[in-house]
Amino acid sequence: MKIIEAMKKIKDLQRKANDLRDKISRYAADVDVMTPTYENQAAKVAGWLQAHGDIVQEILHLRFSIQKTNVLTSVGIELGDQCVTKTIAEWIHRRRDLSGLDAVAWGALGRTEKAGQLKEGAITGPTGEGSREVKIRRYYNPEKRDQKLDIYQSEPSTIDGRLEVINAITDLVE
Question: Global pTM?
């Protein structure tokens, strides 16, 4: 079974489990003046509970198999001008939030300039005496910052595209 098949099966199993919970809730009890809906309603409810438990176990098995596959399967993804190899699990974490954290860090470079807190030009002293020309000292490479920002900002969609393919072609590890 492929990863995507397992993911879709989990969704279907969750739907079935939800239907069973609805039936259990609806038919688990009634008042004695009502006619039971099913011939042996207690056995029917017990069967639904058993079926629900079996479904939950199957969901657990599939989820664990997906996690195991994600931890054991390495995938190369082109980021910028290089191919980076990580496990599917690592790519999921990069996609979820870590690439965004990197983008924020690289985006912080030059933020004081953009906010107008640092300006080049002539300044006068505190008492109004004398004027001096000031220049901004940058302790980073603006070109590298822009390159890294572009990579980190596009990384989530790059990961999504690659993992969609990987999920369709990768067999589950049992």
Answer: 0.83
